[in-house]
Design a protein that fits this description.
Layout: H1 2-44, H2 49-66, H3 74-124, H4 130-142
Organism: Neisseria shayeganii 871
Keywords: Membrane, Transmembrane, Transmembrane helix
Protein name: Putative integron gene cassette protein
Length: about 140
């Protein structure tokens, strides 16, 4: 009888260990998926500091779970920042390109507008006639 109780206790302990291991594994997998989903959000909106902060926090939680809840190592912090910087890198490049293109467009538009304004002023002052005004205006607009 004592032997049967001993076997039952051993089986209960083994089942409890298996349940605990599965719970930890599920918790770790959930944290990993949350971190990766947040990285995707960050890729779609890389200039949002709230998403960046959330991603870092979720990454720390995932790292903490992968180290059996013994804290986050400096190596993990560096890996997290590398992931976050990579997710944000495309935004920096595209933002720079967009700003450059916008700046060039504004400069060109400004230059064209200035040329047309100058041409209009010359026409209104009688320095050039209507035929020359229309001809030069067409040249300016054709160069856009």
């Amino acid at each position: 009888m004592g032997f049967i109780i001993f076997i039952i206790i051993i089986v209960v302990i083994i089942v409890a260990i298996i349940i605990q291991a599965n719970t930890e594994l599920n918790e770790r997998e959930k944290a990993r998926k949350s971190y990766l989903a947040s990285l995707e959000k960050l890729k779609n909106n890389p200039t949002n500091p709230n998403i960046k902060q959330q991603t870092l926090q979720l990454g720390r939680e995932y790292s903490h779970l992968t180290r059996n809840k013994k804290g986050v190592a400096i190596f993990d912090e560096i890996a997290l920042m590398n992931d976050i910087n990579a997710a944000c890198a495309a935004a920096t490049i595209s933002e720079f390109s967009s700003n450059s293109m916008l700046e060039r467009h504004n400069n060109t538009s400004s230059t064209i507008q200035e040329k047309i304004n100058t041409l209009t002023s010359l026409y209104e002052q009688g320095v050039i006639d209507e035929k020359e005004f229309q001809q030069r205006k067409k040249q300016i607009l054709d160069n856009i």
